[in-house]
Structure formats: C-alpha cells, structure tokens
Amino acid sequence: MENHEEHENKEMDHSKMDMTKEEHAKMDHSKMDMTKEDHTKMDHSKMDHSSIPMGMEGHDHHKMMIADFKKRFWLVIVLTIPILIISPMIQDLLGYHYLLPGNPYILFALSTIVYFYGGWPFLKGFVGEVKKGAPGMMTLIAMAISVAYFYSSATVFGLKGVDFFWELATLIAIMLLGHWIEMKSVLGASKALQLLVSMMPADAHRVEGDKIVDIKLENLLKGDVILIKPGEKIPADGVILEGSSYLNESMLTGESKPVKKELNDKVIGGSINGNGSLKVTVVHTGKDSYLSKVIKMVEEAQKTKSKMQNLSDRAAKWLTYIALSIGFATLAVWLILGFPFVFALERMVTVMVIACPHALGLAIPLVVAISTAVSAQNGLLIRNRTAFEESRKITLLLFDKTGTLTKGDFGVTRIESVDEKYTSDEVLRLASALEQSSEHPIAVGIIKKVKENKVTIPKPENFNAITGKGVEADVDGKRVKVVSPGYLKDEKITIPEDAYSDAAETVVFVLIDGKLAGYIALADEIRPESFEAIKTFKKNNIKVFMATGDNEITAKSVSDKLGLDGYFSEVLPHQKVEIVKDLQSKKEFVAMTGDGVNDAPALAQANVGIAVGSGTDVAAETADIILVNSNPQDIANLILFGKATYRKMIQNLLWATAYNVVTIPLAAGVLYSSGFVLGPAVGAVFMSLSTVIVAVNAQLLKKQINKK
C-alpha cells in the first residue's frame, strides 16, 4: 500500500542537522585523541574520518594489552620461583638453607629481568600519571618496586643490609595478575568510532552520463549524483534527484517508522533504503556528514568521561602521598637521632615496600572480576568499571523510546471485527492479500503479524491502488479494500468510536464488498517489562524521563501510559547530548539508556551509559553497561549490584589499608626503644594474611549479589 494519510505523521526536519560554520570549524577530526580508560587508550591523533576507508575495523588495542599482561605474568612467575627458593630471607623464614655459588648475583640477574620486563607497564604508567599530575596505582607500584630493586641491588654490590628481591618479584607477579584479571573481566576497549564509520558502505554508484561507475566512498565529491539500489545503505548525505522510497533511519535518528522520501527530500548517509531506487545529489561528504558529526560528539563525550578516576586509583593516590611522606620522615628522624645512614635507609625502604601491600593490588580487581561475572549471569555486561562503581549515585534515568522502552517494531497492536460475518483472523487474512507485495511500513507490520499467526495469505486479483487512500483487489471472490480514515470520510462511512484507543496508533480499515468489516491498528508496542521497571525506579526515588526522535503525539502517549516524569520529542543526536548536559548541570547524576546510533553521543556523555543488547553495535560499544536481555527491569538490578560491589570494594580497601596502619609505623621503628622493629620477614607474613582476607571477602560478593 503506497498511501495512508493518517500514517504520515510529522517527519523529522533533517535540515536541523545543518550546523553553523563555527561548529564545522570545531569538528576537526584530524586532531582526535579519544581515551576510554587507562588500560584502553586508543590513539586517534592521526585519524581523519574524511579519508578513512569506510568499514575499517582498526586495531584491537585492548586484546593486545590483555595478551601483553598475560605474557609478562607467566614469565615473571617462572623467574619468581627460583628467586623465592634461593632468597636468604625466605630460607630463614621457612627454616632451610640452600645457597648457590654466586647466590646474590643470580638473585640480582633474575630480579633485573623481572624488574625491567615485568615491571615495565607500571614504570610506563608511572610516567603517564606524573605527566598528568594524577598519581595513582601505577605510581604506587612503580615506587615500591623501584625502591626494592635499587636498594636490593645496592646490597649486592657492597651496601650493608638485606635484599628485597623476593618482595620485588612477588609484588610484580601479583600486580600483573591483578591487572590481567581486571582487564579480562571488563570488556573495555571502545570500538564506537570504528563501528560508526563502518556503518557507511565502502563503495558508491556514481552516475556519469548514461553510465554507472562504482567508486570508493573516499573519492565521492560534493555535487556528484549517485544511484542507491533497493536495500542498500545511503553512502552520503544528499537530496533526492529522482525516485521515491521508504528509508529506515531508526538507528540514526530514533524515528521508529520508516520515513517516506521523495523528490527534493534530504537523505542521511548510513540510513537503509527500502524497495525503491533513488538518484541522489551528494551534499555532504567526509567530516561534514551527519554521521561524522555524531562521531565527533561521541569522541568529545568520551574524552570528558575518561577524566573520572576509579576507586582503587583514588586510594592508591593517597597511599602514595602517605608512603612517601612517612618514608622520607623515617629516614630524616633516624638520621637526626644519630643512627647510621645504612640503618635509617633500611627503615625507609622497609616502610616504602610495605606501603604497597599486595592486597591492594587484588582488592579491587577480584571484586570487579566477580561482580562482572555474576552480573553477566543476570543479564548485565559491564564494560566500564568506573561507571559501574558510580551507578549507585544515579538520580535520573533518561530513556530512548524506540527499542528501549518499546520493542522498536512498527507492529500490529489490535485487530477488530465490526461485522459478525468475519472474525478478526479473517479480517487480517484478507487484508494481508493486498499488503504482501508492498514496502509500506503498515504493510510490513501486517505481514509480520500474519507470519506470527501462521496464516496462509490468499492470492489477490485485479489489484488496484486507490490514489492517496489505500489499495483494493478481489480476494476469494470478494472485493476487498484496505484504506485510510480519509477514504471512509469521503464515502461517508462512519468510523467506529473505539477505533482510536491510543494517539500513537495508526489505524487502517478493511472493507469487504463495500461494507466496513473491521480495522487494524499498528504502533511501536511498549515492552511489558517497562511498566514494572518504571515503578521500581520511582520506589527508589529515581526520576525517569524519555528522549525520542518520534513526534509529539507518539512521545506523549508513551509517556502518559508509563507515568514518566517527563519527555522530549523530535530529538536529534546532538540535542540528546544537550539534554543530558542540561540535566547534569542541574546536579542530576544521569544514566542514559538507548539502542541506536542516535543514542551514542548521549550514552557517552551520561554519567552511566546503558545500551540495550538488541540495539546496534555502536550503541553497545559506546555504553558503559549492556543489557543483554533488553529488559529495562535489569537496570534496577544494575543499581543494586553497583551498591553491593562498591560496599565490597570499600571493605577490601579497608582490610588492605588496615595492614598499612599497623605495619608502617612498626616498620618505621616506633617501638625501637622497646627493642622491637618489624623486620621484612614478619612484614611478609602480614602481607600474605592481608591478601588471603581480601580474596576470601571478594568471594562473598557472589552470595550477596545472587540474593538481590
């Protein structure tokens, strides 16, 4: 069916996507530098989206990082075993003696490899943190291993004292393990930009006179005329020169219904053509295109979010300051008291090595690994652990409508018979005969319903289009018409009072032999789970808003049905970002939930971005958390899981730092006058005990989350 006047709701004005020259000037993709998290840095500084071959997958930096930590960890483990066996301090602790010829030099050689190869990621991370003026876990680890290595090396070559090579090796091994566990549990690397780029086809069909020439997309120029065949992606923004078709723009604009496009209408690169052929004059290419502007918005939002610092880094920062202060104070005090430099130095080194407890390296990664695994079993995939930690603070949820609160399909919601001769199934069966060859969204929705009900579609004869009103044909010896309300008005046929139960519905009427037999209503259905989810959020004092590309009537209808606190209609991607920013400026901690490319910038900008699993890869890669089952109710679980996980992290950090509170003063020598100074061997026992407590406590999180 080619025309239903009631179906033609207000289409989105894509002229809004034209930005000012000032905005274009800001969108210089040649200077990109997007960071997602410390372990997932991706250098886009040389990436220019106007020249990138579309569909380029790019380099999976995150997987390389995991592989690198894994390789370093196993080599360090292999070297740590002999270091422990031949270390004098460990031998004294365990009560055995086994010294090789040149024992100190063997320890020095093995430990040198461990320090420079195993410790390299932490030394490199330390430099990065110092440059940013934000000391964190890398600084703390680098400080501890460097003090242990250089002091121990000095004892090999003449300095009086005991070595800490075994402490150095075990510390590096455990820290590598902690980072490896964490990186494996968090999906991490953001591929959003590459996925956005890959939405564009690699080639375009350029019209050159009477010939059609296939060219690479990067060779397309403004003013070129291109041919878009049925079912193909639109390769560039442009204006229709010839032809008409229905375009699926839902993943770009959020409009749930395919949009009819005719002569002089604008089309967006990346949208999908229906069954009609189009000739389009190219208006925007490269960085001026609508999709590139979306890419820029995602990138800018991710830059802003990457400044958030996770819990373990904040703890490590303060521990670094404390360890350095106490370490140097220890050295100064013992020197002032007149003790030998070697004695004072040993006390300082012991303090600094103990100040980086092995437990702190596992306190957070173990909790993260367990919480991500258990959450995944409950339908939540965690990509950004900082945002997951912060989910407990959510005060406002902003939902995209299409595909999130609703199913995302323009489907049949009601079939009603008004003539007792025909059942509702018969009304659907006869209507489907006329709709089976049409590309119209209403026809597609009706045929989908027929397939769900396993109805056999009869063959139509004498098919005819009623211009601007609907279609008609002979089916099973009856003259059947599927028409718009306008046709009924023209023919003075009364429209049933209950035909329109919902302002968001589109209704078509079925006439058999000139008499009204029934009607079929279609809409984008609300997910049944959405109702319960909204109730749960309100019970927890979380405000719920909706932002959608759909028109005002549809948006208001969905908002009223669900009882939302408010809604925004006819919203484009850059407007969704502005909505999120505006809400954040009002001191709201915003979680954004969406499923499409149009949601990607807002997902990146929000404090917590949540993608629906049934949506696009772009939305999923931009979000912090993914709802595997596309169930809004799972967001309530997310908040509960986030609170439980944060509590467990705090408990583990308290255990890990409690070790410091006890051991650092003892290592510094506060009880020296009583004849007690904490030696490295006793410190090692405390260290092991602290690590075991942290590991056991992390395991208890499984039971706690599963009770939710």
Automatic annotation (TrEMBL):
Transmembrane segments: 73-99, 105-123, 135-152, 164-181, 318-343, 349-376, 653-672, 678-701
GO MF annotations in UniProt: ATP binding; ATP hydrolysis activity; copper ion binding; P-type divalent copper transporter activity
Biological process, per Gene Ontology: copper ion homeostasis
Main location: membrane
Domain of life: Bacteria
UniProt keywords, alphabetically: ATP-binding, Cell membrane, Hydrolase, Membrane, Metal-binding, Nucleotide-binding, Translocase, Transmembrane, Transmembrane helix
Topology relative to the membrane: Multi-pass membrane protein
Entry EC number(s): 3.6.3.3, 3.6.3.4, 3.6.3.5
An example Gene Ontology CC term for this record: plasma membrane
Domain P-type ATPase A: 199-299
Keyword ATP-binding belongs to the record: yes
Region called Disordered, residue ranges: 1-33
Subcellular location: Cell membrane; Endomembrane system
Enzyme class (EC, first level): hydrolase
Pfam families: E1-E2_ATPase (PF00122), Hydrolase (PF00702)
Similarity annotation: Belongs to the cation transport ATPase (P-type) (TC 3.A.3) family. Type IB subfamily.
NCBIfam families: ATPase-IB1_Cu, ATPase-IB2_Cd, ATPase-IB_hvy, ATPase_P-type
Name of the molecule in the record: Lead, cadmium, zinc and mercury transporting ATPase
Species this chain originates from: Flavobacterium frigoris (strain PS1)
